[in-house]
Write a structure and sequence with these properties.
Blueprint (H helix, E strand, L loop, with lengths): L2 H7 L5 H14 L3 H29 L4 H40 L5 H6 L7 E3 L2 E3 L1 H11 L24 H4 L6 H25 L1
Antiparallel strand pairs: 1-2
């Protein structure tokens, strides 16, 4: 059971939501322990690259046909190691960029929101994410409880500050509260004045 998820959702929490979030976290989220392990692995790969570069430089100084194949083999291995290094490094940068973006979007729990993202539609190039904003908009609309409220939002619609009536509305013109009071006043007192005048003429 994800206790932190139950705390966030409150009465909205269900076992089905818990299971779905747990499943998605297992598929997409990179745990801190895994992140640290990958970072260490990247460091080791980088050290291997440096060592093999030194080996290649040393072999190039030897002009012997028997060593040419060994040089080529080392070059191929070096390329594969570098490709693996670049792939893992990009994955780490990708996950870090998503986590930073979720924090900026005021996600209450980046793990929970991250688990709901479809990473297949998100691209990461030159340090920039593409396709994430659209998903965040949908999540904020359908699962607003996962994000903090925007404290800079507009005042509640329909609530008007005191003294907010225009002079025209206060004088009974136009529409609004002032006009409504003016109409009520005229309907009552206007009728009284008309009756008084009729009595005097009689």
């Amino acid at each position: 059971m994800l206790e932190w998820l139950k705390t966030i959702l409150g009465e909205a929490y269900t076992d089905d939501i818990d299971k779905k979030v747990s499943d998605e976290i297992g598929k997409n989220f990179v745990a801190r322990a895994d992140f640290n392990a990958k970072s260490e692995e990247v460091k080791n790969l980088n050290a291997q690259l440096s060592e093999r570069d030194k080996q290649l430089e040393g072999l190039k100084k030897v002009d012997a046909e028997g060593l040419q194949q060994q040089i080529k083999t080392l070059q191929d291995e070096n390329k594969r190691t570098k490709d693996t290094y670049d792939e893992q490094l990009n994955k780490i940068k990708f996950e870090h960029a998503i986590d930073t973006a979720l924090t900026g979007a005021k996600a209450r729990n980046t793990k929970a929101v991250s688990a709901l993202l479809d990473r297949e539609t998100i691209t990461f190039k030159d340090g920039k994410l593409s396709g994430l904003d659209e998903q965040l908009k949908t999540l904020k609309k359908d699962n607003a409880y996962l994000f903090e409220e925007d404290k800079t939002s507009d005042p509640v619609k329909g609530v008007k500050p005191l003294g907010g009536l225009t002079p025209q509305q206060n004088n009974g013109g136009g529409s609004g509260l002032g006009a409504s009071y003016a109409q009520r006043y005229n309907s009552r007192h206007g009728a009284t004045q008309t009756n008084s005048q009729n009595n005097k003429e009689e």
